[in-house]
Amino acid sequence: MLTVTVEKLVPGGYGLARTEEGAVLVKGGLPGEVVRGQPVRRRGALFLEGVEVLTPRPDRYPHPLPPSADLPLLYEAQLPLKEALVAEALERIAKLSFPLSPIRPSPSPLGYRTAAQYARHPLGGLAYRLPESEVLVRLEEDPLVAEPLKKALALLQTWPLPVEEVALRGSLLTGEVLLGLIGGSPEVLKRPAKALVREGFRGVVWAEPSPKGRFRGRVTPLYGERTLLERFGPLTATVSVESFAQVNPPAMGALLEEALTLVGGGERALELYAGSGLISLLLAPRFREVAAVEISKEAVRRGEADRKRLGVENVRFHRGDAKEAARLGAFDLVVVDPPRAGLSPEVRAYLLETRPRQILYVACDPATWARDVGALAKGGYRLRFAQPYDFFPFTHHVEVLSLLSL
Ligand SMILES: C[S@@+](CC[C@H](N)C(=O)[O-])C[C@H]1O[C@@H](n2cnc3c(N)ncnc32)[C@H](O)[C@@H]1O
């Protein structure tokens, strides 16, 4: 057993402590806490497992939270840790010293999530799956989910559905909820789906479990609607249970409003990793043409539906891989909002070759963001603005809104 003092929070949500054998990564210990656990070497790094906190921080959050909540501190204490995570990634990885704008807190620290997934417990009801494990913990309630999901959860707890997992997507705008049933048989689930829509769900889809991820296999609508309308600050857009949409719409709305103050206008704008193209639709009045590239068919379908509903004529969706952006030529502004892996080498090369005047980079992983910002800075771009946003209170996750220009 090893006893250490956690020094700081690092990307991935680990606490970092130093020992004579080098740095050790701790899950479950917060900066300032003395913890004890079993040191294990994995993938070339030292981890502490089976962690027991010997001296808890006085500002630890005193109420129950789901296992995914790896930052269980009073809300105000979470924000400086997240800010430091972004500042340090920029210094250590991008080798840039830049004054970050102060972190924007989430409009609601609790009850903010409009999407969630749970496993079915074999003894009935719903359960959390412990991170990186198969262990299930019975779900009593989830204080992180928004009001429409709370009601849906209470209802689902009492339904003996023959599935592996359920996924929920709610709307704060309409109060409605969509349900995804993962696993089991779509034929058997048709009747319960109809009954669940009668009980108040707006629609139910079935998805085949896939090793590639949720909703990456076959998806079949069972009953009711497939999308809901949600508000993201200046825009209303469709969301579904099957493809990506931000889970904290008011926080995303604040980011979108700020993003619009950062970018100019011009002839051509491109959004890569566009989802349903929220930013493209907002940029449409400022550019002659806007191209939005997204890999998910379902997200592109929603984007097209939103474009038509909003009467936007100059946004074109391209379903495909961002790494093929070179086919679309050069743009005045390129917006990127990639998954945690950050930009692919091809996208970095594309940006450095075609040299858009402005790059708006929305990031959900500070480490890969810093890597990409460092590469763009070496290629002649300057970081002009960077602000962390808290979309995920009580977790280590942090978004960054940033602008680079030549
Ligand atoms: C963080 S989300 C951002 C979506 C959008 N900006 C929003 O806020 O709703 C990343 C998006 O990138 C898409 N994506 C992932 N890999 C991609 C790739 N190689 N090429 C294009 N899109 C990709 C995902 O399907 C997802 O919609």
TrEMBL record:
GO biological process: rRNA base methylation
Species of origin: Thermus oshimai JL-2
Entry similarity comment: Belongs to the class I-like SAM-binding methyltransferase superfamily. RNA M5U methyltransferase family.
Protein's recorded name: SAM-dependent methyltransferase, tRNA(Uracil-5)-methyltransferase
Keywords (A to Z) from UniProt: Methyltransferase, S-adenosyl-L-methionine, Transferase
Residues that bind S-adenosyl-L-methionine: 246, 273, 294, 337
InterPro entries: MeTrfase_TrmA_AS, NA-bd_OB-fold, SAM-dependent_MTases_sf, TRAM_dom, U5_MeTrfase_fam
Catalytic residues in the record: 364 (nucleophile), 364
SUPFAM superfamilies in alphabetical order: Nucleic acid-binding proteins, S-adenosyl-L-methionine-dependent methyltransferases
Highest taxon listed in the record's lineage: Bacteria
Residues covered by the TRAM domain: 1-52
PANTHER family: RNA M5U METHYLTRANSFERASE (PTHR11061), TRNA (URACIL(54)-C(5))-METHYLTRANSFERASE (PTHR11061:SF30)
Recorded GO MF terms: rRNA (uridine-C5-)-methyltransferase activity
